[in-house]
Each structure stands twice: as C-alpha cells, then as structure tokens.
Amino acid sequence: MAQWSQGVQSLNFEQLNLSKRVLDAVRDTGYTTPTPIQEQAIPVALEGRDLMGLAQTGTGKTAAFMLPILERLLTGPLGPVRALIVAPTRELAEQIYETAVEFGKYTKIRSVAIYGGVNKNPQVKKLNRGAEIVVACPGRLLDHVRDGSIDISKVEVLVLDEADTMCDMGFLPDIRRILNLVQNRKQTMFFAATMSDDIRYLSRDMLDDPATVQIGIIAPAKTVSHALFPVMEALKKQLLMEILDHTATGRVMVFTRTKHRARRLAGDLENKKYRVAALQGNMAQNKRQQSINGFRNGKYDILVATDVASRGIDVTDVSHVINFDMPNTVDAYIHRIGRTGRAENTGEAFTFMLPEDMTLVRRIEDVLGEQIERRRQPDFAYGNFNPDVYTPRGGTKSRRRGSGRTQRQAPPPAPKQQVTRSRYGRQAQQEPDGASTPRSESRPAVKSTQPRPNNGNSPNGPRRRRPRRRRNPTPATNAAD
Fold first, then answer.
1. Where in the chain is the domain with CATH 3.40.50.300?
2. How far is the CA of 428 from the CAs of 356, 417, 447, in angstroms?
C-alpha cells in the first residue's frame, strides 16, 4: 500500500497516542505519516467528542475514524455491538470492513459487514457469534433489526460515512430511524466530501457540540488536472476509442449516467479487445465485487461504472477518470474525479461536454476557481458543435446582454444570384464574372394554353366509362313450382 506523506507534518502516528497493537497494524499497511484529515481528526475523536469531518475523497477519512474506534474498543466488554458505521453503498461498506479487519488484526475486536444483494443467513451467523464493529448499509441494517438478529441498543460510537451521499440517495428517513435506535450512544461522527443543507440540519439535530475538521475547500484534489472535450452525443463512443488508443493510460474509470449505457459501453470496449469490466446497480453483489477486485488487482484496465462507484471505492493507482456522461451535480463531479489523484498521486479527468452542459460546467469552474481546459480532437468529434463559440469566459464571441450565454455566430448570407428563365423555362446559366444573360435575350416561361389531358377531353375523344357490373339477380321461381 502506498505511503501517504503530506510534506512537513507536525505529528506522526507514534505521537497520536495509539496503542502498540494498533500502531503495529498501521505500520504493516505501509502508512508512515498521517494525512491532514487524520492528523486533525484522530486527536479529537480520541477525546470522545462529536466530530464533523470534511475533506476531499482519497484523503484517508476511513482511517481517521477507524483508528479511534479500535482504540476505544480495546477496553470494555467483547460481544455486543459497540460501534456502528453506516455507509451508502455495498462496495463502500465492504471496503470499510476490510479496513477494520486490517487495522484490528492484532486485537480481539471482530467486525461484520451487512448489506443487501446477498443472502442474510451468513450475516446472521456472524452476528450470532458476536461482533463489536458492524459496518452496514441502512436498508439491510433495519431488516436485521426487524428480524431481531442484531441489537444496536448498546452502540457507543456511531459513524455516518459519506453522509452527504446518503441524503442525496434518499436514505435520510432510514438514518433518522437508526439514530432513534442508538440514542444511548456516547459519540457521533459525520464524514463527508461535500456539505449539503440536509447534512447541516442533520448535524445540528444529532451532534452534541461537534468539532469541525475541514481540510481545504470542498473540491477535487490539486493533484488532478481537468480537461473538457466538446463532442456531439452520437460521436461520444468514437471519441472514447480515440482517446484510449492514443493516450498513455494506466487504470481508467469511465462513468456513465445510466446502468444500461454502462453495460452496453463495456460490451463495446470488450469487442475491441480491451480488458474491461462493468459496475452498475443491476448486477448481483458477487459480480460487482468481482469487477472491483479485478480492477483493483490489475485483471481489468478499464472499469465502466455508474455513480455507484463514485463514492468511496479506493483504488490508489487510477490514472484517468473519463466522464462519458456529464454528472447531474457539482458534488457528483467531485466524487467521480476523486477516484483519481488519490494518496497524492497525479491523475487526469476528462469530461465529454455537450452544448447543454455549459451551465453545469460554469458551476464546476466556480468551485475549481479556474477555467477548465478545452481540448480539441479530430474534426469527427464535433459535427455542428463549435467548441470555440461556447467558450464561457474570455472569449471574443458575441453575448446577449443580460443573458450570460454565448451566442452562435450565424454565417454571412450568400450573395443573391439574378435568376432568369429562357424561352424553354430553364434557368439561365451564370457567367463566370457573375453577370447573367441579359433580360432582353430571355423570356419568362409562357404558360401553355393547351388544356391538360384528362378523362373528359383527351386528344382521342372522351373516354368511355366501363359500365358498372351488376350482380346476377336471383332467378325468379315459377309460381307453379
């Protein structure tokens, strides 16, 4: 695992008052110095205070709350669920569970991950054997509570990871039910990459005098470079093939807006002999995990995914993120781009831009504080879309006053040609110097006075009309018969 050095640090892991068993596990992972969010959040969490942690994705938020949890659970009873971590997606829950196992391998603390899409019975068996840490998705957690297979009334520490995402995905009612079930908790921590209004209101209601730790602005990491590729919808796939064929890439994540497009695009890339896997919500959980593990282990070079993979998937050596479809919000853009440039590695983010995406592009540029570079590709990619006309800032193109939108420049009108007709009704030929045949030498077309032939007055006389065929009447029967 990569070492996360953050330049000159005032603390190291040995100075964070962690026990030897936890520190030994940290050293085994290869971490030498804490990241800024870890350096500031871990001391606060070790004091037992409520915490709101805000930082870009890929900055080590998972370790920022997992290490204090393990340190807290080293003392006290074993068996009941004492720490509950709620995550929005199955992949993120599985990843947090693996981190808990990795950092807690020299302790007796047991962890369980529970999420939907798989059979409940193995999860129930693990819960019955006892677990001090439970990492769960909201829906499956409430299912286990209703079934009586888990008791969370003794939870001491509650963590909401990617809390902004859970509110965006409609989990807010489930989160409130969970909060009511763990009212005896002693510590609550919210971690997110962006701060929505729902999270602000939720934190005011559920956090008790929290400490806020915010690292930098809520924006993608500075190690990521951004570029926009103006393109028409019908030419996106061709442009993607062009980029993959002519760009030196490592592991690439391609984001689409819909599940069906992710599946079809992955199939098209596979037909072109790329090592590619798909990740979308209609896949079974074991297939989704196979795609993630294969991408992480190098079996696949390209992962085509929906936004289900934009939150918390930790693959440190992703070199490029390509937004095949523009995300719906600025927050979604930040989360997608956060899959590259992790652990202070450099990365590139390419976004395919349609003309109607300009409003969102301006909002993203406001968050970044700079204009995103426009890159031109071969002419096939543009069609009728001139990216220079849509340059949002600093361009020389005309603007409509007060609208804030750039205008297309209409092409100059073509010079009118004088059209004359010859005596036969044909258009006169244009001379090389632009002068047409003089009007005196041409006459307008004369309408013929000969009536058009029709059924009534053809040259051969009126046309006889075929008599209508009548059905044979029923023969009259003889009265004598």
1. 13-214, 224-381
2. 45, 11, 18
Give the span between the Cα atoms of 191 and 189, in whole angstroms.
Answer: 7
Q: Is the dihedral of CA 195, 198, 201, 206 positive or negative?
A: negative
Element of type H or E holding 134? strand 133-136
Q: Which residues lie closer than 8 Å to 254 by C-beta, 6 or more apart?
A: 240, 265, 302, 303, 304, 305, 322, 324
Q: What is the DSSP string of 369-418?
A: TSPPEE----GGGTTT--TTTT--SS--S-B-TTT--B-PPPPPPPPP--
Confidence check: pLDDT of 93 > 60: yes
- Residues of the chain above pLDDT 90, percent: 36
Tens digits of residue pLDDT in 143-160: 999 999 999 999 999 999
Report the C-alpha gap between 260 and 283 in whole angstroms: 11
- Closest C-alpha among 35, 104, 108, 102 to residue 69: 104
pLDDT tens digits along 413-435 = 555 555 444 444 444 444 444 44
Give the Cα separation of 234 and 199 in Å (integer): 38
Alpha carbon distances (Å) from 314 to 58, 213, 407, 412: 7, 22, 42, 53
CA atoms within 13 A on the CB side of 16: 30
Q: Does 3.40.50.300 match the CATH number of domain 13-214?
A: yes
Structure-block tokens of residue 229: 């590729």
pTM: 0.58
Mention the CATH class of domain 224-381.
alpha beta
Alpha helices in 130-195 (DSSP H): 138-147, 163-168, 172-181
